[in-house]
Every structure is written in structure tokens, then in C-alpha cells.
Amino acid sequence: MNAQVLFVIPTLKKLGGAERVFMSYVEHLKNCEPYIVCIFANDCREKCVHGRRCESLNVQNHWPLALQLLLGSYRLASLTRRQQFAGIVSFLTFANVISILAKFASKSKCKVIINVHDIMSNLVNYTKLKNYQKRLLFLFIRLLYRHADAIIAVCEGVKRDLVEYFGVPIDKVTVIHNPIDIEQIHRLAAEPVMDILDDNKNYYLIVAVGRLAKVKGFDILIQAVARLIKELDVRLIIIGDGEERSNLLRLTKELRVDGVVCFLGWQSNPWKYMARADVFVLSSLVEGFPNVIGEAMALGLPVLATNCSPGVRELLEDGKSGLLVPAGDPEALAEGIARVLSDEGLRQELAQRGRQRVAQFDLPKVIMLYEDVLLRLLHKGRHN
Fold first, then answer.
1. What distance in Å separates the CA atoms of residue 209 and residue 341, rounded to the nearest whole number?
2. 182-360 is classed CATH 3.40.50.2000
């Protein structure tokens, strides 16, 4: 009989990398019955998502942090006792903390599995949290994460960070890379592009995808493009939206590349644009294990990325499956892009290695691994 499992995430309003991984698991798990809970009020009213029941804990994100945590954990504990879930599976730090607190509050045998997508010791330096909130975040991670029944880390670098920096027992952490739905990406990439792009282009097309935030380094990429246009005919399309949009638009005007850089905003199907590019560039200052690199690889795009985290190095096999350049350096980024675009043989080699690499993260394979971890833990819990 299938085990009913509570999947918890702060919000599904915006589908970033972690949220899309969350939905992939919810949609494709076969031997578990996910019941979805979003923490923040109005971010997920009672409904069905992919046939799964979905509701909110009705916590307001403008409340004081301590009140959010206490009320969220109390309501989650009440729901856990009422529905008698076999396990809680949480994504992102806020949900992870609430889920572990709920485990204590509910006094049930419900197992808690948390998912960690970021190098936490690094990430807090790039958030808008106030200093006291950062200290509180570190304290919660250090005190609570070790009490999770299992932790899924998206890469070895995240696992090392949890063990070495936060004192999490190594035997509690399992590495499972994010799934990439290669079949779906290829299907959607074949859709026609009627706007923006010309299939008969005679320039090199660079594509970048991500939230328009300082941590993503799009300002560095735009500066690199301003250098590149002196020697190569290039265009850059940036797919995504965020708080830095107005600053980035202003920067393109200041550098006189506003006719070269195109902001497409958020796209439900970014892959149809990516498929028509000559190179994919990730310019981040810090990352966990970015899905978008795997998506670019699946499309046969050569990848150039900043050496901004252990996860990126692991994903690109230390430069074997994609070119690595220093983070935060517009000149190095420009030189790396020029190298890829000027060398057809290098582009083909990186594309081939990328396709081989991403095959390891294909959705069906990862779903089997993930479900195996859940079922082993839940089976163990029923016999304790």
C-alpha cells in the first residue's frame, strides 16, 4: 500500500529551481502519495496540483520571523497528527526548520526528510536578511538539521558543507542530484519561436537564464558582452525576472549595449530560446547545483560557467563538461565566451560531453533513487 507523505515548501507562487524539483517529485513519485502544503498564506489555496491535495498553513510572510516559525510548526504538527502522515518531506530552509520543529511538537513517529539545495555557509552572505536573521538562520541549521531523519543534498559540496560547517552527522546525508526531464525539454524546445529571434541569424547568440538578482551576476555578464562586441558580433538574451531588472536595463544603456542585450522576462518555455543559442552562460557569484546547466546540456548547448560553487564544479566535472572561469570577473568571462564562440571544435566537444553528463540526471533514474530513500526510511519507521 502506498505511504502518504506530506510535502512542504514555503511557496509555489514562483517556480524557481527548488520549486520545480519539488513539483517533479510530487508529479512522478509512484509508490508514495504526496500531500502538498505551502507555508505562506494565499500562496497555495486548497486545490489539487498534479492530482495531489494542496493547501496552505496560512502563515503571513510579513509577520516577525519567530512568529512565522512557531505558528507554522504548530499548524504543521496539528496537520501531521490529524492525517497521520508517514513522513514529512520539506524543501528550502524555512520549510526545513518548520518541519523539524513540527516533528518535536507533534510527538509522532512521522519521519522528517529535508532537502538542501544550497551551500548554506555561503548563501547567507548573498541574501537580504538582516544580521540578526542570518545569525538566527545559522543557529537553527546548526541545532535542528541534525535532528532530521534524513537529509537529501543535491551535490557532494552541499553534503560537505552540512557536515563540516554545521556538524550534521555524515550518515544522515544522501546525495541525489536534481532530476532533469530530458524528454520534456526536447519536446518543448521544438516549439516555434516567432518573436525576438531570427533563425537565419549571422551573429553568435548567447543565452542566460535565472532570477534577476545580484547573486546571479548578470551585471558581470553584461559588462563581458560590452567587451565582446569589440571583436565578435554577438547578441545576449536573458530569460528571467526579478528585482535587479531596472538596474540591469540602466547598465545596458550606460554601456551602450541596449541594442545587443534582450530581456525576455520570465518564460514558461525557456528551452525553445535556449535551443537556438550558440552558448549558454551562467555568471553567478554563488550557486548550489543549478538545474539550468543540466537543461542546457540536454539541449546540446556548450556551457560556460563561473567557478562559483562546488556544485557547479561537480556538475561540469571540474571543467570537463563545460568551461569554468573565475566568478565576478567580466574580463575573464568575456575571454571565456570568446574562446567558446571562436572554436567550433571546442563547442562540439563541450556539447557532446554535456549530453553524456546530463544523461546521469535523467528524470526516471533520479525518481527511482529518491523514492528508494523515502521508502527505506518510511519502512524502517513502521517497524520501530
1. 18
2. yes
